[in-house]
Amino acid sequence: MTEATTATATDDLHDGIVWRPSEEYLRTSRLKRFMDRHGIADYDALLRRSTEDVAWFWEAACEDLAIEWYRPFEQVVDLSRGVPWARWFVGGRLNYVHNALDKHVSTGRRNKLAVIWEGEDGAIRKYTYWELWTETNRVANALRALGVGKGDRVGIFMPMVPEVCIATLACSKIGAIYTPIFSGYAAQAISARLDDCAAKVLITADGFYRRGGVVRMKEVADEAVARAPTVEHVLVCRRLGREVPWTEGRDVWWDEAIRSQPRTYPTEQTDPEDPFMLIYTSGTTGRPKGAVHTHGGFPIKATQDMAHCFDVGERDLIFWYTDMGWMMGPWLFIGALTLGATALCYEGSPDYPGPDRVWDIVERHGVTVLGISPTAIRGMIPLGVDWVTRHDLTSLRVLGGTGEPWNPEPWTWYFQNVGGGRCPIINYSGGTEISGGITGCNTIRPLKTCSFVGPIPGMAADVLDESGQPVRGAVGELVVKQPWPGMTRGFWKDPERYEETYWSRWPGVWVHGDWATIDDDGFWFIQGRSDDTIKIAGKRLGPAEVESAVVSHPAVAEAAAIGV
């Protein structure tokens, strides 16, 4: 347990508190500085003000995050079309790439590391902000040469290599819309996404390493493109240098396409409501849902979360074990770069060639903020704590976890063995359509095991019973009662499905589809999907409650609770 600042260890154990911020966390906190700047005395007061006056909060957040505009906005939010279709930063002009990249190259950050990449085979590449900027510009010019312009869609089916970050930045720089696709998808899933968004170009790689073996990407991409008639070109990154099937006139090698391209490109000035990313989620039924995200939406929400929850700044090296096809991939690069930090991405398996690969990366690179899923931690527990303790992890100051609810054993294992009981675990829950989190933690509030401190600033979250009334101490629906910039601008070509999915139960209220509880001390807990409700003797249980009990048995690594 870290040194308590306002209570004794006995008090903490009685209250269930396992971590309190030290004076150092409070002194260096970005969120605390934001509160002090605006004369806000405590976190509860911040939550109230940020949700009762959303226009004030999001303008103040943009200022705090140093968001630069080509033209200032005239109105923070316009609700004339209703809350589900809120328009943000009306009248302004920006491009998130300017804030993530362009603005840094004219400052002392130009020679600071922006991205570090490590391959499963041990290969390492590093890019300064200047190097990342010049490579992005060359790829932007190459995409224009392939006929890609503002509003065109580009599929990105790539491993976690530096080029995947560069590809997303280049697409956004020219005003195109990229669609990140999970690197493990089969051809049918890829083609469904390419066909739905009518992609003009697909960017892929010859392959990548996974658990020591070669994963062939180009062959899968070819099969997908055969079912996606709108794709005119396939841009191929040489990750492995292997021979691949080739279609002349359609396929283009990445290195050849950019070789003679200029190292400058004028960033497209976009409306805050112009889309930059179309990221698909797998619906429970029917075709995938394409969540539309804009230059004035996802980047601001993602960066705000990274700054105010994870306390990331220029000093930090953040490593989140993820894939570009999941929301946390774009979130990692956009947030870290906008804040002037360094993002680390890793290509392969977290336990190859040894169970300590993640901890080895943390030690060698000096990672300060680490993010990983509860599933990954559960898989590491049976391998033994010695794989962790053999590494010096004292560079870490913040731990993160997302993707699913925690249960106590892996949370405690992560907290004690990886963080040494001194680093807070920033529990983070939201989703692709949110652009980040609804609920979260931060470095200035105490923590209970598996808990959230509550809604993230700017998120007017609540837990409602079946009649739509706030409920405490019992399972209820997680909802959001006010708009926020990161909310998806609907599903691609399917606005009715968007309204039906999130806005149809209670007027003007976003129903997220998660069960949540708020305990007597005000801590929040996510209990699983609300469409997976289990009723026992008339009482509602979230599947996470059952799953947590099952996986507490040493013989069980994974569990899924299903009502029948």
Write the layout of secondary structure elements.
Elements: H1 9-15, E1 17-19, H2 23-28, H3 30-37, H4 43-52, H5 54-64, E2 75-78, E3 87-90, H6 96-100, E4 113-118, E5 124-128, H7 129-145, E6 153-156, H8 162-173, E7 177-180, H9 187-197, E8 201-205, E9 207-210, E10 213-216, H10 218-225, E11 233-237, E12 251-253, H11 254-258, E13 275-281, E14 289-294, H12 298-308, E15 317-320, H13 328-338, E16 342-346, H14 357-365, E17 369-372, H15 374-380, H16 386-389, E18 398-401, H17 408-418, E19 425-427, E20 429-431, E21 436-440, E22 447-448, E23 454-455, E24 461-464, E25 476-480, H18 495-502, E26 510-518, E27 524-529, E28 534-536, E29 539-541, H19 543-551
Parallel strand pairs: 4-16, 6-7, 6-8, 8-11, 11-12, 15-16, 15-17, 17-18, 18-19
Antiparallel strand pairs: 1-22, 2-3, 4-5, 9-10, 13-14, 20-21, 21-23, 24-25, 25-26, 26-27, 28-29
CATH class value of the largest domain: Alpha Beta
Multimeric organization: single chain
Give the count of helical stretches: 19
Query: How many domains?
Result: 2
User: Could you tell me the mean pLDDT?
Assistant: 93
Give the structural class. alpha/beta
Quick one: CATH superfamily of the largest domain?
Answer: ANL, N-terminal domain
Rounded to the nearest angstrom, the radius of gyration is: 23 Å
CATH-level-2 architecture of the largest domain: 3-Layer(aba) Sandwich
Give the fraction of residues assigned to helices. 25-40%
The beta-strand count equals: 29
Broad shape: globular
Strand order of the largest sheet: 5-4-16-15-17-18-19
- Largest sheet, if any? 7 strands, mixed
Strand composition percent: 15-25%
Given as residue ranges, the uncertain stretches (5+ residues, pLDDT < 50) are 1-11, 535-542
Distance between the termini: 42 Å
Determine the CATH topology of the largest domain.
Rossmann fold
